[in-house]
Amino acid sequence: MSESAIHGGCLCGTVTFEIDPPFQRMVHCHCSRCRKGTGTGHATNLFAAPGQIRWRSGEDAISRYELPSAKRFGKWFCARCGSPLPRVTRDGQALVIPAGSLDDIPPMAPTDRIFWASRAPWSCADGLPTHGEYPG
Ligand SMILES: [Zn+2]
Ligand SMILES: [Zn+2]
To answer: How far is the CA of 101 from the centre of ligand 1 (A)?
Structure first.
C-alpha cells in the first residue's frame, strides 16, 4: 500500500481498490456507448497502465461485459450495486478508470473532450441555475 495511491470503490462498498499515479490523461467521452454505459451525458475516465491498480476487496463481485462489436469498449461493474469500476481493456494495454469511482481527488484535471461530434444535445449545457443540493 503506497502513500500516494488514489483510493476508490463502488457505491455499496463491496469492491474497493487503489491506484498508483501517474495518470496519462483524463477525458470526458461523449460517445453513445459511454452514454449507455453510464446513463449520463458523458463518461469521465482516467487512463493508466494495468499494473497500477490493486484490488483491495470484492474482486470476485466484479461483473465484466465486453461489447462484442467493439475492439476495446467494455464495462466492469459491481454485481451488487451496478457501479462502474476500473477495467483493463481487452487487449491488455490500458486501465480505464471511471473518475466517479474514485474517493480521492486525482492529481490531474480533465485534459480533453472526445467524441464531441456524437454528444447529446442536452449534455453539458451552460447557464443553468445552480443549487448546492436539491432546489429549495
Ligand atoms: Zn457495489
Ligand atoms: Zn465513450
So the answer is: 11
130 alpha carbon to ligand 2 midpoint, in Å? 26
DSSP state string for 58-106:
-GGGEEEEE-TT-SS-EEEEETTT--EE-EE-TTS--EEEEGGGBSSPP
Instruction: With a cut of 70, say whether residue 3 has pLDDT above it.
Output: no
Helix (H, G, I), strand (E, B) or coil at 28: strand
Question: What tens digit of pLDDT does each residue of 72-94 get?
Answer: 899 999 999 999 999 999 999 99
Ligand 2 ion: Cβ-proximal residues, 5 Å cutoff: 29, 31, 34
Q: Which residues pair with 76 in a beta bridge?
A: 64, 85
| Domain 6-118 listed as CATH 3.40.630.30 | no
How far is the centre of ligand 2, averaged over its atoms, from the C-alpha of 118 (Å)?
Answer: 9
70 against 13, higher pLDDT:
13
